Amino acid sequence: MGFKLGGLPFFFFFFLLWIWVLFSVASAARFHSPSRQKFQVQKHLKRLNKPSVKTIQSPDGDSIDCIPIKHQPAFDHPFLKNHTIQTRPNYHPEGLGSGLFGDSKVKVNSKAEPRSNPITQLWHANGKCPEGTIPVRRTKEDDVLRASSIKRYGRKKHRSIAKPRSPDPDLVNESGHQHAIAYVEGDKYYGAKATINVWEPRIQQPNEFSLSQIWILGGSFGEDLNSIEAGWQVSPDLYGDNNTRLFTYWTSDAYQATGCYNLLCSGFIQINSEIAMGASISPVSGFRSSQYDISILVWKDPKEGNWWMQFGNDYVLGYWPSFLFSYLADSASMIEWGGEVVNSEPDGQHTSTQMGSGRFPEEGFGKASYFRNIQVVDESNNLKAPKDIGTFTEQSSCYDVQTGNNGDWGHYFYYGGPGKNAKCA
Question: Which residue ranges does the record assign to the Neprosin PEP catalytic domain (predicted)?
Answer without folding.
Answer: 171-425
